[in-house]
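look at this:
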Amino acid sequence: MKVWILTSGFGNGHSSVANALEEEHQRKGHTVVVSDVVQLLYPQKAKLIYAVFSRVICRHSWLYNVLNQFGRGAYQNPQTAAVLERELDRICPDMIVTTWSGCGRKLGKLHIPVHVCITDVGVHAGWLYPHADSYWVATTEVADQLRKLGISPERIRVRGIPVREEFRCLPDKAGVHEIKHLLIMGGGLGIIPWLDELLQGLRNVPQIRITVVTGKNQQLYQKLKTGYPFVQVTGFVNNIHDYLAQADFLISKPGGISLFESIYATTPYIAMHPAYEHELENAAFIEKKQIGLVVHHGEDTSEKIIELLADEQLCRAYQANMVRLKRDIEQSRRTFEEEMEGYAG
C-alpha cells in the first residue's frame, strides 16, 4: 500500500506526527510519501511564511490566537487545489493521512480514503474535513468533543498522538531520584522566554540537576554556557528520548507531541505559562489526569516547582499516573492497529 501523508511546518508538532506515522507505515512494509502542504501550495513563499511564523507569530501569543481563529472555523465545501491534484496523479496513493487542520481546506472529495490525525488533546471545527473516512484522536475526551461537533462515532478512532518508536520502547520509571533531574526544553526553535527567571530561582536549590535543550537557538546556548555554569546545556539533539528517560520532570510549554513523548517516557510534565489555545487544552489535560504541574503567568514559577520537588508523595503520584495513562494509550493504539489492519484488508 502507498500512503501519502500531508503535513505542515507550523511548529514541530505536525511534522513530528507525520514522521512518526511514516515510521509506522514503513515498518508494515508500506510505501510512504510525506509532503508539506504549504511548500506545495506556495513554493516561492513557504520559506518566508515559516520565517514570519517562527520569528514573529510564535513569540506573541495574542497575535497567534487572533490568527488561529481563522483556522478554527468549519469549512463545508473544500475543493482540491490544482497542485494537489497533480501530486495525487503523480504519487497515486492508496490512502491519505493529514496531520494539520489546514490540509482539509485544500482537499475536495477524492476517490481514495482520507484520514485526519489530530495532533493535540483538544479539537476545533477547523479539523473537520467533510469527506474524511476517519479521525484519529489522542484520547476518549477528544472523541467526545468530535461527537459534539457532529462526527459519527464509527468515524472516530482513539489511538493516542503518534510518537516515534524510540519513545514507545522506553521502560516505565520505577521511582523518582533523590537528586531530581529537571529537563527543560523550548522545542526545536528553543524559545524559552521564562528561562532566566526560573534558573535564577533554582540557582541555589540543593538536590536538583538541570539540563536545558536549546534546540536551534545558538544565542541562548551561548548565554547559558557563560551565565549558568551549574546547568548542563545542549543544542539540537536527535535522541531526546534518552534525555526524557533520564529526567524526573520535563519543564516546557505544553505541546501535544512533547506531552505524549513524556507520557511514553513516564516523565511527569511541568507545563509553563500556557497561552496559545492548544496549550491551554493540553495544560487542562495534564491537570485532569494529574500527571504534572501547570504554572500560569503571574505565578511564582520557581516557588511552585520547589514545593513540588519537596513533596515526594506527589512526585511519585504523578509518575504512577503517567504509567497508568501510558498503558491505557498503548491499549488504544493496539486496538487501533487491529482495526486498521482489517480496514486495509
User: Anything to note?
Assistant: The chain has 14 helices and twelve strands. The chain has a mean pLDDT of 90. The first helix runs from residue 13 to 27.
